[in-house]
Design goal:
It contains six helices and 19 strands. The longest helix is centred in the C-terminal third of the chain and has 13 residues. It has three domains: about 60 residues, OB fold (Dihydrolipoamide Acetyltransferase, E2P) (Beta Barrel), CATH 2.40.50.100; about 80 residues, Nucleic acid-binding proteins (OB fold (Dihydrolipoamide Acetyltransferase, E2P), Beta Barrel), CATH 2.40.50.140; about 80 residues, K Homology domain, type 1 (Ribosomal Protein S8, Chain: A, domain 1). A six-stranded mixed sheet has the order 2-9-10-6-5-4.
């Protein structure tokens, strides 16, 4: 009966979906060991996986919508479906790169506020080149850019600042200068998209450093405080501006 009430997922891509909507998949699938990945058994390569992203969960014949937003689809690989919303509350996800604020130094472990329901832990050995004698210089209040290696509802989130080869790859303690602010998770995903027009347009305005966290936090630093605040204001406003309005605002600023 549930399958009869469902709608094909492809037909709703780019449209608003509501909690409780059932999306039917284009092919039969079987559950993967990871739980949130669906193995396609028809019309796809044997190793293909259909990823069930944020705002969706498995339900019998397809995917059940759990939050309101626009349905998105990425066909690359096995494909992926997710709901793009203006959510601001962050739920830690394994593999996400986030910006955390060090709140406690407890022995060999740091506790970081990552915007979730509980703090994340970060070992002092989870930095490039760190040893028992060569400890990283991390203080309470520092900003740390890292990646989740453990994130589920039954365990405390755990972060690291190194990749699989032991290199920092841009992760670690962020400089003391700069400005940290928070935006919606939907805007972060838009800014992280390849060849994002917003980032390209801003880079033509002023040179600046930018760190984007999947938890909705952005750290930015330009040459002067005034330029930094201008970039912050544009990034905060671009969520509610059209492309034409954004271009007009940037053209006005570049003219000055």
């Amino acid at each position: 009966m549930a399958a009869e009430r469902g709608v094909a997922a492809e037909a709703l891509v780019g449209q608003v979906v509501l909690p409780g909507d059932l999306l039917l998949l284009p092919a039969h699938y079987s559950e993967d060991a990871e739980g949130e990945r669906l193995r396609l058994s028809a019309g796809a390569a044997p190793q293909a996986r259909l990823l069930c992203g944020p705002g969706l969960r498995r339900s019998g014949a397809g995917l059940l919508v759990t939050k309101c937003g626009l349905l998105r689809h990425r066909p690359a690989g096995g494909g992926a479906y997710w709901v793009d919303s203006q959510q601001k509350r962050y739920v830690p996800v394994k593999g996400d790169h986030v910006i955390g604020i060090v709140t406690i130094k407890a022995g060999d472990v740091f506790r970081l506020d990552v915007g979730g329901s509980e703090p994340a832990s970060l070992s002092y050995l989870a930095f490039e080149g760190a040893t028992k004698r060569n400890r990283p210089n991390v203080q309470v209040g520092d900003l740390v850019y890292g990646q989740f290696v453990v994130a589920n509802k039954d365990m405390e989130p755990e972060m690291v600042c190194i990749d699989s080869s032991g290199k920092s790859s841009g992760m670690g303690v962020i400089g003391q200068d700069g400005f940290l602010f928070k935006v919606s998770l939907g805007l972060i995903r838009k800014l992280l998209a390849p060849k994002c027009e917003i980032i390209q347009e801003l880079s033509q305005l002023y040179p600046f450093e930018l760190v984007l966290g999947m938890n909705g936090r952005i750290w930015v630093k330009a040459k002067t405080i005034q330029q930094t605040l201008i970039i912050v204001n544009i990034l905060e406003a671009c969520e509610y501006m059209t492309a034409e309005q954004r271009k007009q605002a940037l053209a006005k600023l570049s003219g000055n």
